[in-house]
Amino acid sequence: QSLLCHLLSSSKWESSEAETSTFISALGYTSEDYYCHLVKNMVFSLVTELRENQFNGLNIQGSISASHVNAVSIFCVPLITLPDLTPLLETLLLYHGGSSKEILSSDFLEAVNEAFLKKKISLPESAVFSLWLRHLPSLEKATLHLLDQLVSIQLNSLEEVACVIKDSLLPQAASHPAIFRIVNEIFKNALIGTDGISEVMTVIQVFTCLFLQARQNETKQHKFPLKAYFPYHHQPLVRGLVRRPFEFPTTYWSQHLKHISDMLIALVEDKNVSSLTDLFEIWFLVACFGEWLDIAAEQLLKAAVEPDAVLWLLAFYYCPKNENQQRTQTMAEAQAVYNHLMTLFSHTDLSLKDLEAAVHRITGIEQCCNRHLITHLLTNFLLFSSGGYKIAQECIYHITETTDTSKEVYSLLSRTAYRFKHGGEEKQRTVKLLNELLQKFSLKV
């Protein structure tokens, strides 16, 4: 407030502090009230001027110059967090003159973004989206801020992760393809830079789910085609992955997974996909839609499914490169474990000794991609089999104590709990077991 008083009292309208004080007293105002009314009137006047100019943009004679709009934005910089200034910030962010160049000061755009990220100001979604569309550094900073926030703080559930992501407004803003592609590229680089840690992968997958929700809420006239978001990918595969599991009857999941797997096999084995870059792009597209991968591992155990196609899908996710036929070896390992688990699936009385062979394949092998896939299968077996719940804590504790899979197992349990809560009913015993495991193992990660 004192800064604003200084700016206004030193402007061309005022001659001296003494005269100003006398003038204010004569009006019957305190100094604080006077400047409060003055700034409100000034904001109202500027907002009206900008909006009228926006609507009468073809009236060249009466149009506001780009330099004038730029000057107004510069004037706002030290006052960004002043609540009375919010209508002017919104109007400026939504203002587009006739110039092809950005007319708002970059200092202004950066200051607004900084204040918004630190929650010092509140803006309508449309103004925030416009800010990110017109100023790429602000969008990049907002995305990196979100990643840093999610990776650095302790979050106890995927509901909390989803809440933080949604609160950032990035999934909603990503309904615009230009924003989606930039955010996705930043996520991709973050995943590479962190060597694919599960926390970043989980953030990407939750963000993708929230983006799809926001896109579904768009009206038809505002909805962009899928190709605008994924312009360089195989469109039938994109359409298959974008369909959310809850959009299908559960009896159709296995068929849909086989359809996805068949398309992937054709793409990956295509001779034109020769570079690791092309392969990574295909893998990253599939990885973003992690719901289908988790359901694939569940369907292997719970439903009648063609195991080869679904195992290949999981093997590709955990072992995309296939150097020295590594994926083939992963498939063989997974097939052996799968066959063993299926013989035990209906047993109501199980001991850790019954699962010794499967556990040994996790704790005794060196290739991490094999270990991660088998850990995924075994964790699901413990959740969904007739007797698995009895030894789940003991078995998972043994695995996580002897390997580096603690965070991965906890992430899998969190994703499963989140999906059950938002995607439909599941057996109460399984939900109870999930909650117990999450509570017990949250202390280990």
UniProtKB/TrEMBL annotation:
Pfam families according to UniProt: Fanconi_C
InterPro entries, sorted: FANCC
GO BP terms in the entry: cellular response to oxidative stress; interstrand cross-link repair; nucleotide-excision repair
GO CC annotation terms, alphabetical: Fanconi anaemia nuclear complex
Coiled-coil intervals, chain numbering: none
Superkingdom: Eukaryota
This protein's name: FANCC protein
Source species of the chain: Pardalotus punctatus
